[in-house]
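Sequence in, structure out. Go.
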Amino acid sequence: MQAFAHPSEATLSKLLDLYEIRWVYEPIEFPLAWHADGRPSAAFRPDFYLPDFGEFLELTTAEGRLATRKNAKIRRFRALYPEVAVTLIGHRAFAELCERHGLTSTHPLAA
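Output:
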């Protein structure tokens, strides 16, 4: 069983499974800033990779300041890696998706 950082990620994984969309959880980390010696000092690890679509998904259930920080990180990611497709699923869009399936945003579907 996959361990997720947040229950909403488990819910999203089950929705992807429901629609038979293949996914990989947090497969790669992209450096966003570096120390003087070349080591990464900041990075972005998108939540899901969809191999059949060649696209990453990033889910955020955060609001306010935390969402602002994540959005800044995604803007930096897009500037450094314009060839890599990433879709941000915000808290409102995710809540609507869950509502359409009769779920709360943190309640995973039955396995």
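Check: The domain at 7-100 is CATH 3.40.960 (Endonuclease; Chain A). The chain has three helices and six strands.
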